[in-house]
Every structure is written in C-alpha cells, then in structure tokens.
C-alpha cells in the first residue's frame, strides 16, 4: 500500500529535534522558524514535557469520557488561571478543525439559527462546517458547500451589522490573527464592534485562536489585545506541543446537557498530560514575556533588510512581506541555509511561527541567511 499523495514533500527526513533545532538523517541541523504550522510552542522535546508524557504512559494512556479523569479537571483549572478566563468551561477534542466544528454546532444549538459570517482569506479547518467557513474554494467539496456562509472583508463593521440585522445569523467566526490567509487581523475598533453587535442581535462570537492562541501573540489569546471577550474560543496547535489535542472555551451563558457534544479521543490521559506540561512551561519560563521581547527585536532586525516591505502579524505569529513571489526564496532558505519557514495564500509572504522559546541569536542567524539568500535569488 502507498500513501495517498496529497502533500508536496521536501527531501528532508527529521530524526530528532531539540528546542528550535531539527536534525535530519544525515546529521544536518535546521533552525525551526515554523514549528510545524505553529504547533511547537514550548520547544521540541522539552524535558518537563517529555517526562510528563513518559510518566503518564506508564500509568494509563487512554480511556473514554465515560469515567472520571482528574487530568481534565487539572487542565481546565490551569488553563482558566493562565488565560484569565476562570468563569469559562472547557470542552476537549483532538484538533483545531474539530474545535471549530463544535463551536459552530454549539452556537447553532444555542440560538437555533444556522447562517455563519466568516471573513475573506479565513482558514478554519478541513472538516465539514470548518471548511465551509474557510475562504478557499479549492478545498470546499460540494457536500461542504451546503452550509450557508457569508464571507465579508475584515474591518467593515457596517457590512457585518447589515447581515446580522436579517435575523438568521447564528455565529460570527474570526481568527485572532489570520494564519494561512496571510497574517491580516482586525483592528481593535472592529473587534470591539463585533462584540457589541453580536450581543445586540443574539449572535455567537467565535474566536478561532487555534494558531494565534497559547501565548503566540504575546498575550494568552490574540483577541485579548483588543480588550474583548468572546462567547466561544477555539484552541489546538500549541496546546499540546505536537500531541493532538484541541478544545473550546465556553462562556457562562451556554448551558451544558448530556449528549450535546461528544468525542472519542478528546481529553484522553496522554493528551491532558501534554497540555498540562505546556501550561506549566509557559508559566514557569515566562514564555509570553519572551514572545514580546523577541517580537520587538525581530521588528528592529527587519530594518536591516531593505527588500522587506512589511512585517505583518504580532508576537511570534509573523509574516515577512516582499514585492515578489517568495517560493524560490523559501526553498533556498530550507535547502541551502537550513532554516524552516512557512508559506501562505499570499505568495509574497514568508510565515514565521517559531517555538516560543526562540532567542535573539536565532533571529540573528535568520537575518544573515535571509540577506544572503536574497542576494543569491536576485
């Protein structure tokens, strides 16, 4: 049997990794400025994380949600404390797409409406409703297109309100910072306007923090930069540092009932152990302080590269924009300079999503390699 060929692959085979460095089968080290789509939050093979998982595996790795699991309770308590959202409740699942699916479903149950407002260049996942609210027709199959979704531009609050006035909108879903779409984000005025009009028209405000959450923006959630509260917050990626886990944080106005939501693998013992370890390390190593320090250093360093026309995003969720297609530049950075970066729907953008542990020396290494690569490409 062969693999279903849906991924274009670089000829690189990683065999080990530590913090921000990945080593391939030939002993070549790569600086990881992409974290596997922003998944690696506390660094590869972080010692506390590894020990926590090994210890848990020796005890019990999995059982269903039909039994007591104190690790879920511990995770919810720690997450509420660190995020500042103690009054929310937590539903656990296994991925960001699943988190968004459950958020959209819970919203529809709540107000008995179905239409969703999403935004241009959004990405929310590849499953049924999640891909329907993703602005990429290439990955939306006919079965997904049955969902009723209206796409609007960011920062046009009057257009959103005009749709909400029609009375059939269940939810508005928005990324704290857009990821795949190209690191665009709503203004503070826009986010605060969304919070206000969603409350006015009984519409659920869903913040997709799958990529922008867990300290990556310099606050625990990116929308907290705008001093708002969402009705439902979707999490995954950095939550498990590579172990599959996701979830939704649910505001107090939503009432739970048996069977309303469910999952087989969500909240299993190993996943919870991984997620608890991540929160432990974010707090003990003050990683959000590091994010803010490195962000400031990165912005200053980018002034050394005149070809850069803009740095988009915030914290360690960044896009370095040029006035040309960067696919060749990105390939050269990987194959010649041994530095991983990411791409986006915006072909002129290098996406930077390193572990939150990255240091200034790593940024210096990137700057030198970027300057050299730009000369070689040009």
Task: Kindly describe this structure.
β2 (21-24) and β3 (29-32) form a beta hairpin. The chain folds into two domains: 14-46 and 286-377, Aspartate Aminotransferase, domain 1; 47-284, Type I PLP-dependent aspartate aminotransferase-like (Major domain) (Aspartate Aminotransferase, domain 2). α2 packs antiparallel against α8, α3 runs parallel beside α8 (269-284) and α10 crosses α11. With 378 residues, the chain is α/β, with parallel strands linked by helices. The N and C termini lie far apart (43 Å). The strands form three sheets. The protein has a seven-stranded mixed β-sheet with strand order 4-10-9-8-7-5-6, with helices on both faces. It has a four-stranded mixed β-sheet with strand order 1-2-3-13. A three-stranded antiparallel β-sheet has the order 11-12-14, with no helix packed on it. The protein is globular, with a radius of gyration of 21 Å. The chain has helices at residues 35-38, 47-59, 70-83, 96-111, 128-132, 157-164, 188-200, 269-284, 287-301, 327-335, 360-377; strands spanning 14-18, 21-24, 29-32, 89-93, 115-119, 149-152, 169-175, 204-208, 232-235, 246-250, 310-314, 317-321, 339-340, 349-352. Helices cover 35% and strands 17% of the residues. The chain contains eleven helices and 14 strands.
| Number of structural domains | 2
The number of strands is 14
* CATH homologous superfamily identity of the largest domain: Type I PLP-dependent aspartate aminotransferase-like (Major domain)
| Alpha-carbon Rg, integer | 21 Å
Query: In one word, what is the shape?
Result: globular
Q: Span from first to last CA?
A: 43 Å
Number of helices: 11
Overall SS class: alpha/beta
On the 0 to 100 scale, the average pLDDT is 97
Pick out the low-confidence regions: none
- The arrangement of helices and strands along the chain is EEEHHHEHEHEHEHEEEHHEEHEEH
GO molecular function, one term: pyridoxal phosphate binding
Protein name: Aminotransferase class III-fold pyridoxal phosphate-dependent enzyme
Pfam family, one: Aminotran_3
Family: Belongs to the class-III pyridoxal-phosphate-dependent aminotransferase family.
């Amino acid at each position: 049997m062969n693999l279903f060929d849906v991924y274009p692959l670089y000829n690189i085979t990683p065999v080990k990794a530590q913090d921000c460095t990945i080593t391939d089968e030939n002993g070549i080290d790569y600086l990881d400025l992409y974290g596997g789509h922003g998944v690696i939050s506390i660094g590869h093979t972080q010692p506390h994380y590894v020990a926590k998982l090994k210890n848990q595996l020796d005890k019990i790795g999995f059982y269903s949600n039909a039994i007591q699991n104190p690790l879920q309770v511990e995770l919810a308590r720690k997450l509420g404390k660190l995020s500042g959202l103690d009054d929310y409740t937590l539903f656990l699942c296994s991925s960001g797409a699943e988190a968004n699916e459950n958020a959209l479903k819970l919203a529809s149950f709540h107000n008995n409406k179905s239409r969703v407002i999403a935004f241009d260049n959004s990405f929310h996942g590849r499953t049924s409703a999640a891909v329907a609210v993703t602005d990429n027709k290439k990955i939306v199959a006919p079965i997904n297109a049955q969902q009723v979704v209206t796409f609007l531009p960011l920062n046009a609050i009057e257009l959103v309100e005009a749709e909400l006035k029609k009375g059939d909108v269940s939810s508005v879903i928005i990324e704290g910072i857009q990821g795949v779409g190209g690191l665009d984000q709503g203004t503070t005025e826009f986010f605060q306007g969304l919070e206000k009009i969603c409350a006015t028209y009984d519409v659920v405000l869903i913040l997709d923090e799958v990529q922008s959450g867990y300290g990556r923006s310099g606050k625990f959630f990116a929308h907290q930069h705008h001093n708002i509260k969402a009705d439902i917050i979707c999490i995954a990626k950095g939550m498990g540092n590579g172990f599959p886990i996701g979830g939704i944080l649910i505001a107090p106005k939503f009432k739970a009932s048996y069977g309303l939501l469910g999952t087989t693998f969500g909240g299993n013992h190993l996943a919870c152990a991984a997620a608890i370890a991540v929160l432990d390390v974010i707090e003990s190593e003050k990683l959000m302080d590091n994010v803010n320090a490195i962000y400031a250093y990165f912005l200053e360093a980018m002034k050394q590269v005149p070809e850069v026309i803009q740095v988009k995003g915030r914290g360690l969720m960044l896009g370095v924009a040029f006035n040309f297609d960067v696919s060749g530049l990105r390939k050269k950075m990987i194959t010649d300079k041994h530095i991983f970066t990411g791409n986006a729907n915006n072909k002129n953008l290098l996406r930077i999503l390193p572990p939150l542990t990255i240091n200034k020396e790593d940024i210096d290494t990137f700057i030198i390699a970027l300057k050299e690569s730009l000369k070689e490409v040009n």
